[in-house]
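Progress against Task 2.4 (sequence-to-structure conversion) is shown through the following example record, which the project officer requested during the mid-term review.
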Amino acid sequence: MFNVQKNKSLRQDILRLTVPVIAEQTFIILMGVINTMMAGHISKEAAAAIGMIDSLNNIFIAAFSSLAVGGTVVVAHYTGKSDRIGAGDASKQALYGGIVLASCIAILAGIFRHPLIHLLYQGAEPAVLTLAFTYLEYSLPTYPLIAVTTIASGVLRGSGNTKTPAKVMIFMNLINVIASYLFIFGLHIPLMPIHLPGGGVRGAAIGIGLARFLGGIILTYILVRGSANLKIENIFQFKPDWDKLKAILTIGVPASIESLLFSLGKLITQTFIVSFGTVAIVANSVANSLHGLMMIPGSALGIAATTLVGQYMGRKDPKGASIALSYMNKLASIVLFLFNLAFIPLYPLLASLYTSSPEVTDLAATLLTATATVTFVWPFAFLLPAGLKGAGDVRYTLTVSTLSMWLFRISLGYILCIHLKLGALGVWCGMYTDWFIRGLAFYIRLHNGKWQQHTVIKSDPSIKA
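Structure tokens generated for the chain above:
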């Protein structure tokens, strides 16, 4: 066991990494929450359309987010080795790779958007589909911006700098609130020649796109300016470094496939709910949005776990990595359970902020109340694999997550939702089962120690023979 001084140092490291990430994740979630709330006050159809397309966007975003995950882990290992140059070079490789990949995905998604939307949401009302096409068309150009902000934030966290992404995300959220409100509802000042027409769903996409554009510029400047652990040299001069790209993709590709299949699974379960009508679609979207807020402490600890485990492994301290991950998992389980239980009386009020429909509010509150009772399992299912990825154990997390998602969340969700006619609640019960199964698998992996046998950086590619 660690001595008292080392335990104190561990707690300080966790607080140093996690507190800024909590702020960052809060504002990331709020960007989507605020847009959903404002769209909900346009119409139920607008809220349903944004919820549907956001689920589709998450699948596409998962592809280039792989470079963010890989970049975070590789930079964390370089930081553990005190290799500032290697960390900067790896960051540049991840950034350029992400921009190229995101641009290609946006182009392909734009070309095939009509058959894709009709295939996935053929049961949706015509008015919802029309708004969904509009929101998607204005979202696609922001994909490269999402890649920049996601990857830049990831590599900064990997270097141990979690405060900067948090500050930038706060700024982005403020821009999003102001711009989205103006673009959604418009602006008219009496007695003055100022009139900005509202754009509805189109305005929601433009507002968040503007925030992402400004955030991408700021984060890129910060990386070029540099810090103690990380600095990108000659940002406009790029040559693929296949050794570093291989290290990034070895982590990122399995993580991306895992995230992609996870998002695809959530999208499939959403199609089950479509047949139950607009109220069920919107309630599911509202509940997912608020659920994201309720999980922020756990998500923040998971992000910190990836960085902290990566840095421990980078300096050849697997025992420290194991102790840190176990401690963070226990902390997250306690915090999430108490936090979510405390909010049960407030769920109807929070849901009503999204919509004026009492049917939507009641169903969303029911889903969130059921979820609160099992949130202590969530860290086992999601924080533990985040830490395992920090050590490079990505194939195991991919295998477990994929099997559990498709065997339990999707299959059981289909039976409960469609055959037993439980609707959205049936889908969420399938999700709880998925949490328990994958949580058990990752807990066993944590304690058998096999995850410590991976090597992320086999040699220093910056040193040429």
